[in-house]
Specification:
elongated; mainly alpha; 2 helices
Length: 64
């Protein structure tokens, strides 16, 4: 186990809605990485069809 992305700390000032750790990564990147690494879906199709208009979100590769 481990943390993927930036760790925002548990400082009260950094909590999202004063109770949760703040999100630090776009989940589309996580899903893109899994779909690319394990199912072989090419990046162009991920950026335009699976997650339309998401070309700025890079896939998180090598997670599994």
């Amino acid at each position: 186990g481990g943390i993927v992305g930036d760790w925002p700390t548990l400082a009260e000032a950094k909590l999202f809605e004063n109770r949760d750790t703040a999100p630090t990564m776009d989940m589309r990147g996580l899903f893109k990485g899994v779909l690319q690494d394990h199912l072989g879906i090419d990046r162009a199709r991920l950026d335009t069809t699976v997650f339309p208009a998401s070309s700025r979100v890079a896939p998180s590769l090598g997670l599994v």
